[in-house]
Amino acid sequence: MPVTSAGAAEQERPARVSGIDKIERRRVALAESALKTLGELGYARTSLREIANNSEFTHGVVHYYFRDKIDLISYCVRYYKTKCARRYDEVVETATSGEELVTGFLAKMTQTLVDETPMHKLWYDLRAQSMFEEQLRPDVEAIDKLLEEMIWRILGRYAELTATTPTVDAPTAYALIDGLFEQAVVGYAAKPDKTPDLLTDRLLQVLPKLVAA
Q1: Rounded alpha-carbon distances, angstroms, from residue 59 to 28, 38, 51, 75, 102
Q2: What span, in angstroms and rounded, lies between the C-alpha atoms of 207 and 47?
Q3: 72: Cβ–Cβ under 8 A, 6 or more apart, which residues?
Q4: Cα 63 from Cα 49, distance rounded (Å)
Q5: CA–CA separation, 86 vs 150, rounded Å?
Q6: Which of 111, 120, 169, 164 is nearest to 143 (CA)?
Q7: Calculated CA dihedral for residues 153, 156, 158, 163, nearest 10 degrees
Q8: Rg for the chain (alpha carbons), in Å?
Q9: Would you call 123 exposed, middle or buried from its count of C-beta atoms within 10 A (0-12, 13-18, 19+)?
Q10: Which of 71, 68, 87 is nearest to 139 (CA)?
Q11: Per DSSP, what are the bridge partners of residue 212?
Q12: What is the 3-state secondary structure (H, E, C) of the chain?
């Protein structure tokens, strides 16, 4: 029996999806390879050629999958920060007390400060550049929203475990906590031995003030 046009489309779909998946896998591989260079050099000092020179991929391959530097950097930061936005989910889901939640949250936050400082520097660099590069703004706004929702999940669970209610809205909670973390990212270069503890102390001061009975 002849295959109808709908049937033909259905048969072709797996091949198309497979092709899309292959392209996306290559973009992810390029992003992971590029992140180290981007984290070390920052937005302004990084070019597609510089990324290629510090990776296993040629400049032609990098340019084939990303139309320009902004496209690549936006993808890299979006890829990394999307993973970051789920970093605290296990703590939120498994904590059985407010103290346990705060302890787990602070442990993970100080760990990512120490282990992934270049990536956070790149994010704050990119966010600042978005004030001047209109092309960056949609991705930056989307990432900011993901991180805001992450902080709100943590605060909401903390309020639930302590039988309290948040005293601020989600954007305010995010601005306060992210502001402290950004300060820590900046300070870590000069005082790597003291900054994680300082971040912990400041967050311990702020978190209880974000909820009330």
Answers
A1: 16, 15, 8, 17, 45
A2: 40
A3: 30, 31, 34, 48, 51, 62, 66
A4: 9
A5: 7
A6: 120
A7: -160
A8: 21
A9: buried
A10: 71
A11: 165
A12: CCCCHHHHHHHHHHHHHHHHHHHHHHHHHHHHHHHHHHHHHCCCCCCHHHHHHCCCCCHHHHHHHCCCHHHHHHHHHHHHHHHHCCCCHHHHHHCCCHHHHHHHHHHHHHHHHHHCHHHHHHHHHHHHHCCCCHHHHHHHHHHHHHHHHHHHHHHHHHHHHCCCEECCCHHHHHHHHHHHHHHHHHHHCCCCCCHHHHHHHHHHHHHHHHEEC
| CB 122, CB 43: distance < 8 Å | yes
C-beta of residue 74 within 8 angstroms of C-beta of residue 139: yes
Q: Is the pTM of this model over 0.90?
A: no
Place of tokens 């930056």: 140
Per-residue pLDDT of the chain (213 residues; tens, 9 = 90+): 444 444 444 444 444 445 568 888 888 888 877 877 777 777 777 788 887 887 778 888 888 888 888 888 888 888 888 888 888 999 999 999 999 999 999 999 999 999 988 888 888 988 998 999 888 898 899 889 999 999 999 999 999 999 999 999 999 999 999 999 999 999 998 999 999 999 999 999 999 999 998
Amino acid at 182: E
Give Cβ neighbours of residue 19 (< 8 Å, ≥ 6 apart).
none
Token pair listed for 107 = 């442990």
**CA nearest neighbour of 196 among 129, 125, 110:** 110
User: What letter represents residue 186's amino acid?
Assistant: V
Fill in the amino acid letter for 161.
Answer: L
